[in-house]
UniProtKB/TrEMBL annotation, chain B:
The chain crosses the membrane at residues 34-50, 62-82, 94-112. This is Malonate transporter subunit MadL. The keyword Glycoprotein does not apply. Keywords: Membrane, Transmembrane, Transmembrane helix. It comes from the Bacteria. GO terms for cellular component: membrane.
Length: 260, 118
């Protein structure tokens, strides 16, 4: 949004001012409804309605980014600012925690060790792949490799790693882009490959969440696969970013520096 | 009362985030270490205990289950707020790193699932 637009919108408040959250509820509700109708009519339920709804969400985000040049998708369009509150961290975390209600504690216990292994393996695999790709594309210093590797974990890991190591803003931006691509891909691809990787029970959902780590990707992907699996995947994925932020600027960075 | 459920849920999240942030600070980082995960465990433990004592009626439950039911729409709103254009403009390096990382992790799911199966 340029300065002129901003001034105009201050002078001409839109209809949504003062009820932006309600606009978000109404628009998302309509989007979900259309998505479920499309799912039933066009794909005969083969593509889950929530997967279509998330795709609509991503398309809105792209449209918002193109229209305003901002970084917050549709939220940068004043009329839709309520999406920022509705989809923001506070309500998202509240809803994620609520899904844990009714989870059987014994399921968690069964996956204890494999959950831990999946988080560690997921973080390290992503770091390695990101760092190798960075090297191939000419980012050959340890700081840039660790930062882009962090982005391949999640964009928060990438930002934290890059900031604490003092990476350039170009590298941090690339790292964030990598993390975003990962989360979008996980959202879209999960329902399609769920069957072939055995993602149909709480235990594999815990492992999936730990390996992928992107909270939004795991949440969106699992909801579109089988909503009952969400709490299991969400639980392990919330430890992933923490583990990544802990390992990235320390162990991973020193390992990369030692190798390069 | 429905608000009891929502209040309980919120209290669990606040405690979880507080513990997560404190853990982060202990490790010298300004990040939250698994706060949401801790909150989920808290909610499971507390509601399990309340159920056993029969202190959790269906109205209180509704204050929790509403939020879990509204989860999909919240994820849709979250997706609409992502920097999708930025991700696409990140170029081939970001795209390749993202695709490879996702592919590798998907491939690892059945491997770890088989490993240590009870």
């Amino acid at each position: 949004m340029n300065v002129l637009d901003q001034d105009l919108s201050v002078m001409n408040p839109t209809l949504a001012d003062g009820c932006s959250l309600l606009v978000a509820f109404a628009v998302v509700g309509a989007t979900v409804w259309i998505s479920y109708v499309l799912s039933a009519k066009l794909t005969r339920g083969r593509v889950h309605g929530s997967a279509i709804a998330i795709l609509f969400g991503l398309a809105f985000a792209y449209w918002g980014g193109v229209a305003t040049g901002g970084e917050n998708g549709i939220v940068d369009i004043r009329f839709f600012a309520g999406f920022g509150l509705m989809g923001g961290a506070m309500l998202r975390d509240l809803a994620i925690v609520a899904t844990a209600y009714g989870v059987r504690v014994e399921e968690l216990r069964k996956a204890g060790i494999s959950g831990l292994v999946s988080v560690l393996l997921g973080v390290l695999t992503s770091f390695v792949i990101g760092a190798v790709v960075a090297y191939v594309f000419g980012y050959r210093d340890a700081i840039s490799m660790a930062t882009i590797g962090g982005g391949a974990a999640t964009y928060i890991v990438g930002t934290v790693t890059g900031t604490s190591l003092g990476a350039s803003s170009e590298v941090i931006a690339l790292s964030v882009a990598t993390g975003l691509i990962k989360s979008i891909l996980v959202m879209i691809v999960t329902p399609a490959v769920a069957k072939s990787i055995g993602l149909d029970n709480p235990r594999s959902a815990l492992i999936f969440g730990g390996l992928m780590g992107t909270t939004s990707g795991v949440a969106g992907g699992l909801v579109a696969t089988d909503a009952k699996l969400v709490p299991y995947g969400a639980l392990t994925s919330t430890f992933y970013t923490g583990a990544g932020c802990l390992l990235g600027p320390s162990l991973v960075y020193f390992l990369i520096r030692w190798i390069v | 009362m429905t608000i009891y459920g929502t209040a309980l849920l919120s209290a669990c999240l606040i405690c979880g985030l507080f513990i997560g942030k404190s853990l982060g600070r202990l490790c010298g980082l300004q990040v939250d270490l698994g706060g949401v995960g801790i909150a989920m465990v808290l909610l499971m433990v507390v509601t399990g205990w309340l159920k056993k004592k029969q202190l959790l009626n269906s109205k209180t439950e509704a204050g929790i289950t509403y939020w879990s039911a509204i989860y999909i729409p919240i994820v849709v709103a979250m997706a609409a707020g992502l920097n999708v254009r930025g991700a696409i403009r990140g170029g081939p390096a970001a795209l390749l790193a993202g695709v490879l990382a996702v592919a590798a992790c998907f491939a690892l799911v059945p491997v770890i699932s088989r490993w240590g199966k009870p």
